[in-house]
Amino acid sequence: MRYFVTVFCGILLQYFAVFPYSFLRFLWHINKKNESKILNGIENLQ
Question: Is residue 25 assigned to a domain?
């Protein structure tokens, strides 16, 4: 039982270590695609 909990915690830690990184890369990728649109929108607002 203790071994199972240790392995489970290890998997969870790996998941939470990798997930934010991939999520940030995903957001950054979208941001690069929409960057010109966002900049144009800001210029139009001013």
Answer: yes
Q: For residue 26, what are its two tokens?
A: 């995903």
d(CA 25, CA 18): 11
Domain hosting 36: range is 18-46
Q: Kindly report the pTM of this predicted structure.
A: 0.38
Residue 8 domain flag = no
Which residue's entry shows tokens 């990798």?
Answer: 18
18-38 pLDDT, tens digit each: 877 888 888 888 877 777 776
- Report how far residue 16's alpha carbon sits from residue 22's, in angstroms, rounded to the nearest whole number: 10
Q: Which residue has the tokens 């900049």?
A: 39
DSSP character at residue 4:
H
